[in-house]
Amino acid sequence: MSLMPVAEALARLLDGVEPRPTEWVALADANGRILSEDLASTRTQPPFAASAMDGYAVRHSDLSAMPARLKVIGEAPAGHGFSGSIGPGETVRIFTGAPVPDGADTILIQEDTTRDGDIVMALERPAFGAFVRPAGLDFKEGEVLLKAQRKLGYRDLALAAAMNHARLPVHKKPVVAILATGDELVQPGAEPGPDQIIASNHLGIAALVEDCGGEPLDLGISPDDSVAMAGHVRLAIEAQADILVTLGGASVGDHDLVQDVLGAEGMDLAFWRIAMRPGKPLMAGHLGATKVLGLPGNPVSSLVCGLLFLKPLLAAMLGRQQSAALESQAILGADIGENDRRQDYVRAELAQDAGGKLIATPFGKQDSSMLALLARSGALIVRPPHAPALKAGASVPIIRL
């Protein structure tokens, strides 16, 4: 069987994927969620001309000669506007955020005054309209301020609150069931046997799912037993998971049972074996409405494939326009050899030179079991199939981590 190019595999994986439906959530629960509809303001902000400073609301024409003597006829704290009107020679004590009274057009800040009883002396003449925030300065009713497909953060939520939205329309989180497989695996904190290792991939993939806006569902670790593994797979179907991610066991060894088990449960295999390094044994298919993504068991292969395939799959389910990992350019920090027929994702340190240019220096060892190198990496250098050898200083595409 020939190896499928990365771009073709990704296109096939995303083909026909529809965004998850909308649900309405409380504003306090919307952080990190993906907005499913444009959001327009229900009000004008500020809804009235408001003072931007503590001071006195005045008629600018009363300040033609300095110092000017004005009579204080009332007070306007925030939330309690002055109900009357200001006439010639009159002023109202005003505080930040309060409505500017009728008749006033300028704010005289308190630092530029002296006061004796109900008489205020204006010592400096402000510009006309100084420190007055006009109605609608920030936004107006009906104005679309947050667009669909935006990932909501703290600034967006503050804005949505100011727009007087208590609930927001967001895409439902895709549920991603994660099944680690292998007799050799035990959970972190357990005491491994002499031939066992600590499972790590499922936790890294779960964190990636959360970062991408999905909801991870940990199915635990299945031993290399068809009956037990089938039971775990059925848990994903019963949970109506949008995606089932399996970790390991999808290759061709005698103990690699994942494909056979999934096939027996009714999976339609879309493709298997990708022309990439690390991650060649990647598998994709579907079990009814559930997408299946079989990631390799080696830790680096698993996480790199999650970045390249699971992340854009989740983006598509959330209606976001991200069909591939975002690439940028960097300067190669060391020589790199020619590549073979597989697209290579080379772990590299990332730094900046004095001019601010990114420098990507590949690590000498690239074994797919070396998770510590991935944690130290700032980028993956993307090496296309049959790419020629390059000297340090050449420009190379990278995926920043």
TrEMBL record:
Keyword Metal-binding: yes
Pathway membership, UniProt: Cofactor biosynthesis; molybdopterin biosynthesis
Superkingdom classification of source: Bacteria
Coiled coil: none
EC id: 2.10.1.1
UniProt keyword annotation of Cytoplasm present: no
Cofactors demanded by this protein: Mg(2+)
Gene Ontology CC annotations of this record: cytosol
GO MF: metal ion binding; molybdopterin molybdotransferase activity
CDD domains attached to this UniProt entry: MoeA (cd00887)
Pfam family, one: MoeA_N
InterPro entries hit by this protein: MoaB/Mog-like_dom_sf, MoaB/Mog_dom, MoeA-like, MoeA_C_domain_IV, MoeA_C_domain_IV_sf, MoeA_linker/N, MoeA_linker/N_sf
Catalytic function, reaction form: adenylyl-molybdopterin + molybdate = Mo-molybdopterin + AMP + H(+)
Domain MoaB/Mog: 177-316
GO BP terms: Mo-molybdopterin cofactor biosynthetic process
Keywords: Magnesium, Metal-binding, Molybdenum, Molybdenum cofactor biosynthesis, Transferase
Assigned protein family: Belongs to the MoeA family.
Purpose of the protein: Catalyzes the insertion of molybdate into adenylated molybdopterin with the concomitant release of AMP.
Name recorded for this polypeptide: Molybdopterin molybdenumtransferase
Organism classification: Bacteria, Pseudomonadati, Pseudomonadota, Alphaproteobacteria, Hyphomicrobiales
